[in-house]
TrEMBL record:
InterPro entries for this protein: DegV_domain_contain (IPR050270), DhaL_dom (IPR004007), DhaL_dom_sf (IPR036117), FakA-like_C (IPR033470), FakA-like_M (IPR048394), YloV-like (IPR019986)
Naturally occurring in which organism (per UniProt): Candidatus Flavonifractor merdigallinarum
Start and end residues of each DhaL domain: 8-200
Coiled coil segments of this chain: none
Region called Disordered, residue ranges: 308-333
Protein name, per record: DAK2 domain-containing protein
Pfam family, one: FakA-like_C
GO molecular function, one term: glycerone kinase activity
Taxonomic path: Bacteria, Bacillati, Bacillota, Clostridia, Eubacteriales
GO biological process, one term: glycerol metabolic process
């Protein structure tokens, strides 16, 4: 049984944990109990810890303290969503506990887990039971008890995981929403998957296939004969996403024109490797999903012929080298040129245009199912030439990631306004006064947030029973302040019911933003429904271009 670990082994444990959660992220995503398609806990936690795994692969650490610090720093900058931020906090406290340690045994691990729990609870304004916080707290408590009996790190970590599973099973009884849906907490599940991955590395178990495994870029020509080359061109390319569209149809298409297909994907881009005879067709189809950034096409038949003749095969430059060359070195934060700047998060070119027109300096593409990391937000803050930068997260799952930027900012102050919807962000920005004091602006913007009501129309991703509603996959859903207002198979009927709700009936101004899946004619019908139902309100219709939500409706 392993008694202690050093920095190198701790790094391997994190890498293994990253592979573990990425291999199970979809199962974790599916633990979300609300039928809106925002199942992203597994994705967020996987992307968050993947940043740490990448850094630990790059930077060998001689001590546990060094490895834990690299891990915590990368997690902080890579944190996505509330679950990712809480995960980064757990490991930030962990790192503080072992910062001076060359190696670590079970007693050190127990103390580090306890420090992590304390850091997470301290940062969460209203900690709730039946969450990752509960699971981590009880797991840490059991680790301390186990360390008193046997200080071997393997034994302590195993005890923590066992108690964590007991705590996880009980989350269904602690949270009313979980109880109604009959599922355990997704964040708690993800945390235990990470701990189990760390323990599996200690025990020498093979690493699961990581969903983010790098794409193979070159065929093994030495093992081929010309007859074995079914398709001629080894094709690799990267596409920067501009639409929020699943890649299943694209994957099916590529399989129909080639083989050896591998697609690696994150929130912002995807990378494709495929063997095909028509690489141009593959690249053309890819542009339906985003902007083509880099591509490499190599003729495997001529390469084989060169190798068979003892020649060095002709090849394009290595794609990773091209990526590095095209990726500019990080620039220094922009020097302040004005008192206030604004960074806003939204998804959809129409919504981005609204924020730009109102004076936002930086726009981050993100929102429901697409949570930007702390590092993504920090880059926009750094580029904003202002003394004070107001950040509008415009989604409850992004607020914590944005708040992590406050201590990271250099030569400027960051103020995060707790906007949970895009209409709240727009209302806050409308009242910002370049001549007012910071305190007055914060007060005015916070007050404006409270005056706007947000409704949304989306769809159910799967069958569910929620708050007495029997929801079927494909139902239209109306949400009021993120609470389920009603469902219907008829979109027009649901829009009419929403328009006649009290909040719309009492509003003076209503703005309807229609999404990327709504054509202009359908949007005009929605406008007519609201004009008929709300004759006393001034109503505007704008193309928001947002994914997921057919309509975002602001009422003031």
């Amino acid at each position: 049984m392993r008694e202690r670990i050093d920095g190198a082994l701790f790094a391997k444990m994190i890498v293994h944990a990253s592979a573990a959660i990425n291999s199970q992220k979809q199962q974790i995503n599916e633990l979300n109990v609300f039928p809106v398609p925002d199942g992203d806990t597994g994705t967020n936690m996987g992307l968050t810890i993947s940043t740490a795994a990448t850094e630990l692969r790059k930077k060998p650490a001689a001590t546990v303290g060094e490895a834990a610090n690299i891990n915590a720093s990368a997690l902080l900058r890579g944190a996505r969503g509330n679950s990712g931020v809480i995960l980064s906090l757990l490991f930030r406290g962990f790192a503080k506990a072992v910062k001076d340690k060359e190696s670590m045994d079970g007693r050190d691990l127990a103390i580090a887990l306890d420090f992590g729990v304390a850091a997470a609870y301290k940062a969460v304004m209203k900690p709730a039971e039946g969450t990752i916080l509960t699971v981590s707290r009880l797991a840490a408590a059991q680790a301390a008890a186990a360390a008193r009996e046997n200080p071997a790190i393997e034994s302590v970590l195993e005890a923590a995981i066992q108690e964590g599973h007991v705590a996880l099973a009980d989350t269904v009884n602690q949270n009313p929403v979980l109880k109604k849906a009959g599922v355990v907490d997704a964040g708690g599940k993800g945390f235990l998957v990470i701990l189990q991955g760390m323990l599996d590395e200690l025990r020498g178990f093979p690493m699961p296939e990581d969903a983010d495994t790098p794409v193979q870029e070159k065929a093994d020509f030495a093992s081929l004969t010309d007859e074995e080359i079914t398709f001629t061109f080894d094709t690799v390319f990267i596409v920067r996403k501009t639409v929020n569209r699943p890649l299943e149809a694209f994957r099916t298409y590529l399989n129909s024109i080639g083989d050896s297909l591998v697609i690696g994907e994150d929130d912002e881009a995807f990378k494709v490797h495929v063997h095909t005879d028509i690489p141009g067709a593959a690249l053309t189809e890819a542009q339906k999903y985003g902007t083509l950034e880099l591509a490499k096409i190599e003729n495997m038949r001529t390469q084989y012929e060169d190798m068979a003749a003892g020649k060095k095969p002709q090849s394009t430059d290595d794609l990773d080298m091209e990526e590095s060359a095209c990726d500019p070195a990080p620039s220094a934060p922009a020097a302040p040129e004005k008192k206030y700047g604004v960074v806003a998060v939204c998804a959809g070119e129409g919504l981005a245009g609204v924020f730009r027109d109102l004076g936002a300096d930086g726009i981050i593409s993100g929102g429901q199912t697409m949570n930007p990391s702390t590092d993504d937000i920090m880059r926009e803050i750094d580029k904003t030439p202002a003394e004070v930068v107001f950040v509008l997260p415009n989604n409850g799952n992004i607020i914590m990631a944005a708040q992590q930027c406050i201590p990271l900012a250099q030569n400027k102050k960051v103020v995060v306004l707790p906007t949970k919807t895009v209409p709240q962000g727009i209302s806050a920005l409308l009242v910002m006064d370049p001549e007012a004091s910071e305190e007055d602006n914060v007060a005015a913007m916070t007050e404006a947030i409270g005056h706007v009501a947000t409704s949304e129309i989306t769809y159910a991703a799967r069958d569910s029973d929620f708050d007495g509603f029997a929801i079927k996959q494909g139902d239209y859903l109306a949400l009021a302040e993120h609470q389920l207002f009603g469902t219907d198979r008829d979109l027009s009927a649901l829009l009419d019911r929403l328009a006649r709700a009290d909040v719309q009936q009492s509003a003076e101004f209503i703005t309807i933003f229609y999404g990327e899946d709504v054509d202009e004619a359908s949007a005009q019908k929605a406008l007519e429904i609201f004009q008929t139902a709300c004759p006393n309100a001034e109503i505007n219709l704008l193309s928001g271009g947002q994914p997921v939500y057919y309509y975002l409706i602001s009422a003031e």
